[in-house]
Prior knowledge:
By secondary structure, the protein is mainly α. Helix content is 63%, strand content 1%. It has a two-stranded antiparallel sheet with strand order 1-2.
Amino acid sequence: MAATPRFRKNAVEGKAAGARAADEPGREHPVGDPGRKHPVDEKLPPLRMFTSGLQHVAAMYAGVVAPPMIVGPAVGLSAKETAFLMGASLFTAGIATLLQTLGFWRIGARLPFVNGVSFAGVTPMVAIGKDRGHDGIAVIFGAIIVAGLLGFVLAPYFCKLVRFFPPVVTGTVITLIGVSLLPVAFNWSQGGNATADDYGSMTNITMAAVTLVIVLALRKVLRGFLQQIAILLGLVVGTLIAIPAGITDFGALGDADVVGFPTPFHFGAPQFEIAAIVSMCIVMLVCMTESTADMLALGKIVGRPADERTIEGGLRADTLGSALSPLFNGFMCSAFAQNIGLVAMTKVRSRFVVAAGGVILVLLGLVPVAASVIALVPLPVLGGAGIVLFGSVAASGVQTLATAALEKGENALIVAAAVGVGLIPIAAPDFYHAFPKDMLVVLDSGISTGCVVAIVLNLAFNHWGRKPDAEPEAEAGADAQPKDPMAVPVAH
């Protein structure tokens, strides 16, 4: 009979309980100065808080407004109605981000965790609402509400998957997150719109390259706070250079209203159709899988490993934010991995900085003309900065893999297979074209498929069918590990 997989949530229970207590919001950090809070819970000076938060908004802005820009025209909305959807998406992304960073009760990861509209839902939403106008949007919103409530109920159970994420799995997934985002940066660098005449032009790619060089140079020559906002400064300088190059569009600034509010149920009361609900529930499970991986990645980067309680709170914030978004005409919310790269690069770990970004997003949703100012940043400029941001995520994954004992057992094979499968949607986008459309929700996400493969192979090679190992020797210190790091996955 195959040996039953053995998992221990903590290497030393008492020690882990103390670590959890020390890492709760407002508690003192146990390492270093006993009177200093953990960097995640530190509140920075107002100006620094605002500029660092604005940098997070600049990094995620294009990702938030892109889904409504795709879905709106597909369902038959006018340009003005699509612009309304974009403002609503900014507003609801801000609310979801505040739920994650500040939280209440057992809702929120309380990490510098940014939430926004999930790209995973774009394809099924287009399929649900195509050419149905307001009715199509109403059906989409109804399905999202049900999917969000289902996810909220499942969060306490789904979070227990953290025990299946040892370093060989988390490192693989984090690497895939970064690599999967790089094509987005490359698309932005070419102009963002493949049907445009100037897509991939020398002007666009040159601007992306110039911005990349500026960001790297600023990181090299600046020090302290200015170095931490090098991305924001690079975006400003790149945008200024892009003006004489003729790729900065001021049209949206002139057409935007000064004040606007995402009127609840602007497109009518939500409608509930079984097929649409099933489709969006699948998307929700995909989003929860990716958010779990993102929280594990962010926890490692900020020095506060995400345990089951943290992931449960984060998933509840994700799903509650998704359930509330349709009330204000927004879509399903999920983690934004690009901002994890920003945290890794800037070393600014305060969750209150990201909360400030959430407030800015809410204000942008209420003041369309302010949102248009952010939109002045040309996509090629954003793409140049994105190469650094997304590459930083992949680098963090490689760093995690360095601790995964790849020389032992079949760990290297696990990484090879999971990365290979995860790269299929990137390297061969039409690879699954003959599969049912409902399956594409999962298969077209390299992060999700790579994550599943890594988990299954880790269990197959490192647990199932193995004889029970002797209990590891008692750890003498907080950093002690079992003899075989893969024998007992530890959820911190």
